[in-house]
Amino acid sequence: MNHKPVVLTLGEPAGIGGEIALKAWQEMQIEIPFFLLADHKHMADMAEKMNIPIVEISSPAEASAAQMRGLPVLHHPLQAPALPGLPNPKNAAIVVEMIERAVDFVQTGKACALTTNPIHKKALQDGAGFAFPGHTEFLGELGNIPCPVMMLSAPELRVVPVTIHIALNQVTAVLTPTLLEQTIRVTHAAMIADINISTPRIAVAGLNPHAGEGGAMGGDEITLITPVLDALRAEGFDLCGPMPADTMFHAAARETYDLALCMYHDQALIPLKTLNFAAGVNTTLGLPFIRTSPDHGTAFDIAGTGRADPTSLKEALRAAWRMAKNRGTR
Questions:
Q1: 40 and 94, same structural domain?
Q2: Is 299 in the same domain as 269?
Q3: Same domain as 90, residue 228
Q4: Statement to judge: residues 222 and 252 lie in one domain
Q5: pLDDT, mean over the chain
Q6: Do 4 and 82 have their domain in common?
Q7: H/E/C letters for each residue in 101-150?
Q8: What does the alpha-carbon distance between residue 197 and residue 237 come to, in Å, rounded to a whole number?
Q9: Residue after which a domain boundary falls, among 252, 275, 298
Q10: What share of the chain is helix, strand, coil (3-state, %, to 5)?
Q11: Same domain, yes or no, for 94 and 10?
């Protein structure tokens, strides 16, 4: 059966996106049909140095057959040469265009899912006036979803931060009952539809040390978090918490839930990356299309050295492929 492929974006051309795409194809071969949206010459030069074949394709429909011979690359030209570790402002708008084009492929049914290589937010802001804190928020805009949810996952743990790419001193202003409720609802629905867990168990972290310790260390758990959880429990949601964040990530605690919902970025990502730094996957929940990404950055410090690890990208492609099966988009 000729399945629709996953579309993979290059991400920041000066980063490790091209290298890990080539290595992912080399190590996975025909495990999952996918193609890379990238500048063909940029990839051809890299592929020659790495001695990994690529095949230029003209449409997503050609990806599955081409993948037998090399990494399928659908041409999207850069404006300027991309040097490892040195983002060029002239390519910033192209990086944004690639994301938009890839989203169009999944929204029009030419691809079954989207996997994105890392972008460099500062380079896009400086070179293209990129008005979003990151991929997640931009994809929410493209999908017309005001509250996209970022889930990070590895075999040992799934986590969702309620507030995402904001400074720590802004968390209490942004964290509202409405945002918390929306995040739980989106996460719960996605766990059922995309992860195929029919009755998801969600553990919710407190905001303050010891989950506020009855108000002695902060009252957010009493005034904000608990009322939202109680209302959703009354609807049948399986929610535990608010829990002290320092005691909910050890092995025995993780056995009691399917996902941990955290109040801010590092509260979620530190335990995940400590447990499994190499295999983490970033998934955007609540979109009308499937999107995954490796859970790392552009790695400018090792770009062009051949040392980039494709493990996270391979897991992101596998996660996208599983979700496509669950959603029936293959």
A1: yes
A2: no
A3: no
A4: yes
A5: 95
A6: yes
A7: HHHHHHHCCCCCEEEECCCCHHHHHHHHCCCCCCHHHHHHHHCCCCCCEE
A8: 13
A9: 275
A10: 45, 20, 40
A11: yes
Q: Which residue has the tokens 């009755």?
A: 199
Q: Is the pLDDT of residue 165 over 90?
A: no
Structure tokens at 1: 């059966």
Same domain, yes or no: 177 and 205: yes
**CATH number of the CATH domain containing 236:** 3.40.718.10
144 with 291, same domain? yes
Angle between helices 121-128 and 92-107 (to 10 degrees): 110
Q: Which domain holds residue 71?
A: 1-148+277-330
Closest by CA to 24, choosing from 321, 265, 326, is 321
Q: Which tokens belong to 79?
A: 């404006």
Phi/psi for 230 (5° steps) reads -65, -40
Return the SS3 of 83: strand
Q: Which residues pair with 282 in a beta bridge?
A: 152, 293
pLDDT for 2 equals: 75
Does the predicted TM-score (pTM) go above 0.70? Answer: yes
Pairing type for strands 113-116 and 54-57 reads: unpaired
Return d(Cα 202, Cα 319) in angstroms, integer: 20
- Alpha helix positions (H), 194-276: 220, 226-234, 251-254, 265-275
The number of folded domains in the chain is 2
Read off the amino acid at residue 278: A
The whole-number pLDDT of residue 32 equals: 94
Tens-place pLDDT, residues 234-256: 999 999 999 999 999 999 999 99
